[in-house]
């Protein structure tokens, strides 16, 4: 794919890059921690001797948040990330790229079928650790997880914010960061999503979090928002 690339340049976020194609299209990308392998059919791009993976903002809420103006990405080189709702590994694999070999991504997923797919991704990514568990019961995976610099939560539950708070109090370092993907329709289908985003952010504020940003993810994810908050616990 290098013949269709004009340039790849750094963004203001560590290990997150912009790929500019010959036709002027710009996409996010990350350096591939598992060269030669894609995870979800994304394009692999060779540029100046390095392989990058295109990061599809319609497939990853973190990429969508970055495209919509996330001010700071707390996921950086060497960070330890606890990821709730890891699914088959789309976003966790890009986080694996970002944190590199000395970082760690603990991917908690409830579905045994989906975890099997995540395990296949992790086989080529020694910094990604799949965990079959229910995020409502963090004590069940406490022996497997170190204290985290970042808690990433993407679960379709009505009490998703409460689950995030519970896990933060269990694992998140003081001054660590929370990235919470709020799914408005999972919480209340009768309310306006913007009201739900505001209410969930206020819930975090009352629970030892300093909410830095609430980003509506439309058009990448309808009725979703990404909350960036810092834990004061």
Unreliable spans are none
Biggest sheet details? 7 strands, mixed
User: From N to C, what is the helix and strand string?
Assistant: EEEEEHEHEHEEHEHHEE
CATH A-level architecture of the largest domain: 3-Layer(aba) Sandwich
Q: Please, what is the CATH homologous superfamily of the largest domain?
A: Vaccinia Virus protein VP39
Q: Tell me the quaternary state.
A: single chain
Q: How many structural units, i.e. domains? A: 2
Strand content: 25-35%
- Strand order in the largest sheet: 8-7-6-9-10-12-11
* Helix fraction bin: 10-25%
* Mean model confidence by pLDDT: 95
Note the gap between the termini.
Answer: 46 Å
CATH class of the largest domain: Alpha Beta
InterPro entries: Fibrillarin, Fibrillarin_CS, SAM-dependent_MTases_sf
Pfam family, one: Fibrillarin
Family: Belongs to the methyltransferase superfamily. Fibrillarin family.
GO molecular function, one term: histone H2AQ104 methyltransferase activity
Identify the notable features of this structure and list them briefly.
single chain, 233 residues, alpha/beta, seven-stranded mixed β-sheet, five-stranded antiparallel β-sheet, 12 strands
Topology, please?
Layout: E1 5-10, E2 17-21, E3 26-31, E4 44-47, E5 50-55, H1 61-67, E6 80-84, H2 90-99, E7 104-109, H3 112-122, E8 128-132, E9 148-153, H4 160-171, E10 172-183, H5 184-187, H6 193-205, E11 209-216, E12 224-231
Parallel strand pairs: 6-7, 6-9, 7-8, 9-10
Antiparallel strand pairs: 1-2, 2-3, 3-5, 4-5, 10-12, 11-12
